[in-house]
Structures are given as structure tokens and as C-alpha cells.
Amino acid sequence: ISHCPVCVACAVGDVPIGIDVERRFPWKEKLAQRSAHPQEYRDLKALPVQMAQAALGIIWSGKESYLKCIGTGLRRDLRTFRVWFPDMMAESFRQEPLRDRENTDQTESIFRPWQSNYLCRIDGREWQFGMLQTEEYTLSVCAPPGTEWEIQEKR
């Protein structure tokens, strides 16, 4: 079970499973430094700020769901493993012309909610992740490979 001010999430299964949901938050440099693997941090710093904010939420939620899945909680140094890769977010942002200007070559990044399922190797073992990111929250599920799940949003 996980919750934040805008969402409650629950995962039930017959295999170890971890779930986390976080309200979307602005860029937090100290959080990025303390939670991102060195390569994740370099990749974050190379992104436009709006994408970096979204990616940091994915990193935090993904790592928390993994640690819940293996039963350790947040006692492990989050910088020692990766759960995020920049190409995961390619479809979540698109470039559009600035809305408040006519005849301009300038664009802005527009966020689109997205969902992804992928495998990630951590400590020599594969793990399956499911991610859902909306304008309000980021949700991550982690379980052994081959685990079937369905992420449903109920309002």
C-alpha cells in the first residue's frame, strides 16, 4: 500500500511486489543528489527542467517500489543502483509552439501522461517495473519478471 495527497495505491499478489505513489513535485537538487545513481544524476542534469522534474519523480518512486519489493525499505543508499534511463521518457514530452506568441520559432515542452513496463537489472537480478505518470502523480510497481499486473486509475 502507498499513498500521497492525490492518490492511494495497492498491490496484491502471490509473489513479492512493491508499489509506490508520489505526488508530482518540483525539481529538488538535494533530493536528486541523494537519490540518483551517478549516471542517473548526469542524465537528469542534461534534461530541460520540466523533464528533469518528471524523471526525478520516476527515479524516487521506482527505487521505493523496488526496495519495498525486496523488503528493505529506504535503508539502502539509493545512489548504488539505477531504475531510470533517459529514453524511457521520449514519448512523455512533445515540443509545441509557444501558445502566447504568434509567428515564433520558439517551442515549449508539453507533458503527456504515459505508462511503461520494462525490465531492469539490479544487483545481478532482473526486475520488472511498471510506471504510470500523470500530471498529478507518479506510480511505480516492481516485481519479479513475468509478473502480470494491470494498473488502473479509479476516480
What does this structure look like?
The longest helix has 22 residues, at 49-70. With 155 residues, the protein is of the alpha+beta class. A four-stranded antiparallel beta sheet has the order 3-8-7-6, with helices on one face. A two-stranded antiparallel sheet has the order 1-2. A two-stranded antiparallel ribbon has the order 4-5. It is built from three helices and eight strands; from the N terminus they run E-E-E-H-H-H-E-E-E-E-E. The two termini are 17 Å apart. The mean pLDDT is 85. 24% of the residues lie in helices and 30% in strands. It has helices at residues 29-35, 38-45, 49-70, and strands spanning 2-4, 7-9, 18-23, 93-97, 107-111, 114-122, 125-133, 137-143. It is globular, with a radius of gyration of 16 Å.
Report the count of strand segments: 8
Describe the largest sheet.
Answer: 4 strands, antiparallel
User: What pattern of helices and strands is seen along the backbone?
Assistant: EEEHHHEEEEE
Radius of gyration: 16 Å
Number of helices: 3
| Strand line-up in the sheet with most strands | 3-8-7-6
State the end-to-end CA separation. 17 Å
Query: Mean pLDDT, nearest integer?
Result: 85
State the low-pLDDT regions, or none: none
Query: Which range does the strand content fall in?
Result: 25-35%
Q: Helix- and strand-based class?
A: alpha+beta
Query: Per the principal axes of the C-alpha atoms, what is the gross shape?
Result: globular
Fraction in helix? 10-25%
